[in-house]
Amino acid sequence: MMKTWLAAGAVALTVGMSTTVQATPSTQPGEQVGLAYGPLPEGVYAINTFSTGRGDARNSPDVGVNVPILVWSTGFKVLGASIMPVIAVPSVFVGTNNAAGVPNQDQSYFYNPFIGNIFAWDLGNKISTAYLVGAYIGVGDRGSLCNGTLTAGCTPVLPQNASTSIRNTGAISYTGDGYNLTAALTHIFYVDDAARFGGQFAALGPIVNADGLYLDLTATKTFGKFEIGAVAYGFTDLPINRNRGAAFAAYQRQGTFAAGGLVGYDFGAFKAQVFVTRTVADRGVGAFADETRGWFRIIAPLYTAQAAAAAPVPLMRKY
Q1: Do residues 45 and 36 touch, judged by C-beta distance below 8 A?
Q2: In this prediction, what percent of the chain has a pLDDT beyond 70?
Q3: Which whole-number Å values give the CA distances from 49 to 52, 66, 75, 166, 315, in the listed order?
Q4: Which of 88, 95, 134 is nearest to 111 (CA)?
Q5: pTM of the model
Q6: Using CA atoms, how far apart are residues 167 and 152, in angstroms rounded to an integer?
Q7: Contacts for 7 with CB less than 8 Å, ≥ 6 apart
């Protein structure tokens, strides 16, 4: 099984206004499940994770999240850690399912791009650990839906886009005997937790965002080219200063925990994974309430130094 990892994110989306203010996560909860953290052979790798889900509540929107990633395993080391820069440009797709009499509208948005680096250590005995640090740069697509007019009724669709956020992930993996046993803990904090949107949406704000804590768990086993196992993930926002101002007065905590099963297959040139997760518990309302989510991932090495070195050299060339 190719050892690889995911180091970017997207968002869970809340559509519609309410009298409460909820922080929404800066990355897609569960984005790292099914992946192992550790040093990669020198090369360039592409990882694309797409998921789509819908809550059980009547008129819940269909929310799709796509996370395309490029990671460069440089072959360089610092303090024994492999240096692997990463970049990603996530996007969100929404299919509204409004009640009768309310128009439906399909929407799509680019999320803040992620730029970071992972430091990965091989500890021996098939155990590896890693530390990822980076930022979601606050230049994403428009974060609000105003139906063509700037009014007080504008809906903040992607409140996370209002501010740059910093990501720190620590992870440990065991990949011996065909197993992938991985736990990844991520903390994200906002540079400005009460930001305003720029440009034509500067009237929207302050947009309240709270720091978040994420846990991704994987336990799979490879049988030949097949991979089968269980995954689980959780998210909770962290306490914030509710006395900071009027924007925080109606703040409501949010969190979720979900679990499911994964099946993967190694095609040689690339690996594919399919998994389904279901909410086990949630706090708050909206984005995660009783959600069923389907996931599809492709992992492909675009270039590796090992493959390049092994390429046959022709004895004769035609000029």
Answers
A1: no
A2: 76
A3: 10, 6, 25, 21, 42
A4: 88
A5: 0.84
A6: 32
A7: 69, 71, 86, 88, 114, 116, 118, 132, 134, 169
